[in-house]
Amino acid sequence: MFKNAIVKKPGKSYVQGLTTSNLGKPDYTIALKQHENYIQALARCGVDVITIPESEEFPDSTFVEDTAVLTPRFAVISNPGAGSRNGEITAMDSYIKGYYEDIYYIKAPGTLDGGDVLQIENHFYIGISERTNENGANQLKDILEVADYKVTIIPLKQFFHLKTGIAYLGNNQIVVAGEFIDHPDFKQYEQIIVPPEEEYCANCIRVNDYVIIPKGFEKTRENIQNAGYEIIELEMTEFQKQDGGLSCLSLRF
């Protein structure tokens, strides 16, 4: 059960942030409304939401997931792979210290985005991507293994981040898309498969009694509902434009 979630309000500079999509520039007013709806959804799931004020100097900093990896016992402050985002970890570090005594840090030349880290019970999967390199992944692996977690490192072939294409719902069930369908490292889990035209919906989040999904992906919504989960749907258009998904917008612990 999650008790807390950290989010960060997007600043006006958000519309100038990094993106690989061709979906156009975000509408800031709509983005603010969608972010507020996201906060309300988290509260509905029963967590206390800590909202960090916007940082105009860091356009991408609303995607707080990339700045840290949180476990029940300790936190790891990451070293984001995009140079323009590295300064985001300083502010996040001060907030994390309010909740954790034991904090570790990913050091250069290692890079690590939290979006490349998936926890399934006591097993962590770490993706090697454009933003997470082998050095950073191995640093996190060493930290986690000392704490008796199992760790698997997975080089990505297609997705931007590991969690772009996979989510864990609990009950040994995963939502998977693209390169992770029938991936040998995930064969032991029951798969809810996302069709190619709905790949964005693979980045969903289980928060206590609910699964939060982006709105507009009917096949995946039906498949998750049929698996027995109660769903909250949210418009995510203005975050999709900046390569962001539901998991990116919060740190849940």
From TrEMBL:
GO terms for biological process: arginine metabolic process; citrulline metabolic process; positive regulation of nitric oxide biosynthetic process. PANTHER family: DIMETHYLARGININASE (PTHR12737:SF9), DIMETHYLARGININE DIMETHYLAMINOHYDROLASE (PTHR12737). Belongs to the DDAH family. One of its GO terms (molecular function) is amino acid binding. The keyword Lipoprotein does not apply. The active site is at H161, C248. Pfam families: DDAH_eukar. Keywords: Hydrolase. This is Dimethylargininase. The keyword Protease does not apply.
